[in-house]
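Cast an eye over this sequence plus tokens and explain the fold to me:
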Amino acid sequence: MKRIILLLTSGFTLTSAFAQEPEDALRMAWNVQGGTARIQAVGGAMGSLGGDITATFVNPAGLGFYRTGDFVFTPTYTFGRTGATYLGRKENDRTEKFALGTSGFVWGGNRDVRKTRSSAWSLAINQSADFKGNILYRGLNNTSSYSQRFLEEIRNANTKDGNVVASQFPFGTSLAFNTFWIDTVGGGTNGNFQFQSRAPIGSGLIQQNTITTRGGITEFALGFGTNLNDKLLLGGTLGIPVMRFEREMEFVEADATTNPNNRFDYAMFKQGLTTTGAGINLKAGLIYKPQEFWRLGLAVHTPTIYSLTDKNTAEITTNTEGYRGTQVQKLEDVTGTPSRMTYLHVTPFRVIGSASYVLREIQDVTRQRGFLTADVEYVHYPMSSYMTTDTEQTPADPETKAYFKQLNRVIGEAYKGAFNFRAGGELKFTTLMVRAGFAYYGNPYKDIHNERGSRFNLSGGLGYRNKGFFVDATYVHNMTKDVNIAYRLQGAPYYNADIRNTAGKVLLTVGFKI
């Protein structure tokens, strides 16, 4: 089975019309729970707690605890270091960024109509994903070359026609062929060519990969929660996430020797991707209070359905020394037009179960003394999928449908469902609060090629509330383990870059009762 998956994944970014990868699907789904500074301080655990605008994005039933209104504003600052280890060599890079965290309005009030004790509406904004980052790694490889990926695509396409190779694979293989990174074997004729790499693998290649990403997902949401008899709370949210992702990758492999006559000095492959679009989702939940001091929560997040547009760029520069010198070609040189594609993407569903214990649970919150809370979340990552925008007016071509079907199969085999855990607590001293928490996000990989991933957060913060004004400050320390694979091969060794990211995040939430 592992070989089947490697065969499928090896050709994705290089096919003649497409450039999505399984990793793109994971990027949209494997994200840390957001929230105000108060909620981030307790690990992001919000499934049964309520009384905070963050409930809009986690369990909207928690809005039912509101008996007044809030205005909330949350700026954030993140700084961190990313270490990447590739072929025994480690490199570091740094990132820092400002963003707008969970902010917005809540309108709530007492009702006492039949069984309804209170209800509230919210209009909120949240950054559900932050894509800004830098990755750099390099190492000496004497067993494989990026160019072998191009050769495998030619072989999988079952073509020996040089004209086909030169024109039908504009995302990489055609550019490599036209700049002589790969070349024909002498003695053949068109229609009966064999192909080879010009990279001197046996004598060693110095490889370097640089990845710069920007953008994020910002979700706008309208939420509602209601309180029935102070026992059962129900709620729902309509979410509109807006997404922008930019990625620039530059992979370089260079001759590790000083030989000026082996017909290869270096090759550089630049790829650019800009993805933009928006989606829609629903969140529904309930909170039940079996006793005054206990709260039990359950929330379900539907998949988000995105309409996305990709714009791709690709460029290869190859220096084959005295053989053909330096050659450069771009994607547009092959296609004649920029690459642009619109499609649908569906993210996984989420289910959140939660429990909270409130110290001295009484309706007068000024007499409460704190709480302990915990969430367990399940995310079914294999559910991620891509679809064509197929209509009667603009039907999708069979090639596009077949590609997405294959891509979805790979996603289903490459990833697995995973559990996430969040927990924390708060102690309240009249107007001052002290908080602490943690969160663990489980491994989404099925381990096809020794992939491992996890995220762990430790957090703490302070809060102040007095006469309708409140301010919360939080620090979150994040440790992420992940992998990056520059290229996959079917018939030769290839290597993961092990990624270790350590980041600090500072949040400040300022709010007013309205």
Observations:
- The two ends are 59 Å apart (CA to CA).
- The helical segments are 2-9, 22-29, 37-41, 147-157, 162-167, 173-178, 331-335, 398-414.
